[in-house]
Amino acid sequence: MRLDVNLATHPYEDTRQFWIRWGSAVALIAILTGALLYTTVTEWSFAEKDRSIMSQYKSQIESRDEERSRAEAVLNRPENRTTRDRSQFLNQLIERKAFSWTQVFADLEKMMPARLHVVSIHPEVTEDNQLQIKLVVAGESPERALDLVRKMEESPRFRQPAVTSQNTQTNAQVPGDNVEFNITALYVPSAPGSRK
Predict the structure, then answer these.
(1) Which one of 2, 33, 114, 167 is least enclosed by Cβ atoms within 10 Å?
(2) pTM for the full model?
(3) Which strands make up the sheet holding 116-125, listed edge to edge?
């Protein structure tokens, strides 16, 4: 058998190089696609588990809300109003008792910058039953009061401290009290028996 090969009309092509280059590129893309498909399927299964857990929590929240509304309806009956009012009064007394002046002053003493002092402290219970402190401090510069707010942010006892107003005094009663700041913060008292 005789093969006629005319290299002038049909030049020689090295297809082996072509298949090595393109075949490896296609194999790499196939591996990458497989890895992406695997991560997509696993993430979807994790998301499905999270969705089922969230639906369980939502159903628990709905059942607790229904239970709470039933309990409030029982408390709002005319024959139960005195018991409700008494329990609210006692709860407010307990919340006020949770406020320790000694602990607040000890916490503030640890974070109070030099040449800044407390003028007044007014604790009160907010509408959502959290203990809020309205603090008035005075000192010689605004930087010291802002330093106190930064330290309060880092403290485990104070939440969401904010400067509500700033007053500059030209003729202060105490020398060096050029600036007076009003600061509000939520106070988290320590749990009983948690002191070191």
Answers:
(1) 2
(2) 0.49
(3) 116-125, 131-139, 179-187, 158-168
Q: Is residue 132 classed exposed, middle or buried when 0-12, 13-18 and 19+ CB atoms within 10 A define those classes?
A: middle
Handedness of CA 82, 83, 86, 91 (dihedral sign): negative
Query: What's the chain's average pLDDT?
Result: 82
Which residues, listed in sequence order, are joined to residue 131 by a DSSP beta bridge?
125
Domain residue spans in the chain?
14-76, 99-187
The mean pLDDT value for 57-67 works out to 95
Residue 194 to residues 17, 107, 157, 186, 190, Cα–Cα distance (Å): 75, 15, 13, 19, 7
Q: DSSP strand E in 49-139: where?
A: 116-125, 131-139
* Cβ(167)–Cβ(180) below 8 Å: yes
Q: What Cα–Cα distance (Å) separates residue 61 from each residue in 45, 51, 56, 64, 65?
A: 24, 15, 9, 5, 6
- DSSP letter (8 states) at residue 10: S
**CA atoms within a 13 Å half-sphere pointing along the CA-CB vector of 44:** 6
Name the CATH superfamily, with its identifier, for domain 99-187: Ribosomal protein S6/Translation elongation factor EF1B (3.30.70.60)
Whose structure tokens read 């510069």? 141
